[in-house]
Specification:
278 residues, Spore Coat Polysaccharide Biosynthesis Protein SpsA, Chain A, 3 domains, two-stranded parallel sheet, 12 helices, Glycosyltransferase, GT2 family
């Protein structure tokens, strides 16, 4: 069982507060549940930083409000860390679920992020694991002092790529990452999630990766990810009015090979008929 559960609530009203109070009254396990209602709302990134600052245990695990842990998730990661105390950041596979909590059965989801048996352990360096997003958006276990030292960057700096940038900063600091080939978290793709309601995460993460000063050995992973992100980054840049950036990405080396494809032509038409808000 965890030492404590800390909830940072950005919602209005007292529905969540009443639920937590009811759980605290009737809980059978000796787990501290601390609830904080943010007035005014902090926004996701500042809320996460607030939770990190309030953490008293020596390990920190983030779980966004839409997502779930597998029943043995915490035990699996704690046992892993106890078997090798040098591990500073540990994580596993994710399952995509819908609003009802049902497995969406998305083929190749974990493979896309190098979360397979072949990459278990420390096969990828910390920065490689961050770039390819083997390090997940939540459900990881990290030394609390590292989380407090790193923190999340503001939305003004990284847009909706806060989770990605957090992993990137951890990787750049070369903390010891460990991937275990075991399901840890369930990532919900809901009707109200950022993933479906518009985001600039691919655009922002594209810029963050491109700006990295990496050794030659990491170029393959960097180029692999930039090629994947480029088409999405272009569309997202157009949607948020960054037309100049979208044009730039369109003709960069990581998108050139897609220019004459059907998708490339569609993106060009979007560019030509879009308006800049810069």
């Amino acid at each position: 069982m965890p030492y404590e559960i800390i909830i940072g609530d950005d919602s209005q009203g007292n529905k969540s507060k009443l639920i937590v109070e009811n759980i605290n009254r009737n809980k059978s396990q000796n787990v501290i549940i601390r609830y904080f209602q943010n007035q005014p709302s902090l926004g996701q990134l500042a809320n996460v930083n607030s939770l990190i600052e309030k953490t008293e245990g020596n390990k920190f695990m983030l779980l966004h409000d839409d997502d779930l842990l597998f029943p043995d998730a915490l035990e699996t990661l704690v046992n892993l860390n106890e078997s090798d105390p040098s591990i500073q950041v540990s994580y596993g596979k994710q399952m995509l679920i819908n609003d009802a909590g049902e497995d969406l059965n998305i083929d190749g989801f974990n493979e896309r992020f190098f979360r397979t048996k072949d990459y278990e352990g420390t096969v990828l360096s910390p920065i490689e694991a961050a770039i390819v997003q083997q390090f997940p958006n939540n459900g990881y276990l990290i030394d609390t002092y590292i989380a407090k030292k790193t923190k999340y960057s503001s939305k003004e700096k990284v847009g909706n790529a806060g989770d990605f940038n957090f992993g990137l900063q951890l990787g750049l600091s070369n903390y010891k990452f460990y991937y275990i080939d075991h399901y840890i978290a369930k990532y919900r793709i809901s009707k109200n999630s950022v993933a479906r309601n518009g985001t600039d995460s691919a655009y922002q993460s594209y810029k963050l990766i491109k700006a990295l000063d990496l050794p030659a050995k990491d170029f393959d992973y960097r180029n692999h990810v930039l090629k994947i992100k480029a088409p999405i980054a272009i569309v997202q840049a157009i949607r948020i009015g960054k037309r100049r950036d979208a044009f730039k990405i369109y003709f960069e080396q990581w998108h050139k090979g897609k220019i004459l494809t059907l998708g490339g032509i569609r993106r060009l038409l979007l560019l030509l008929f879009s308006r800049s808000r810069e």
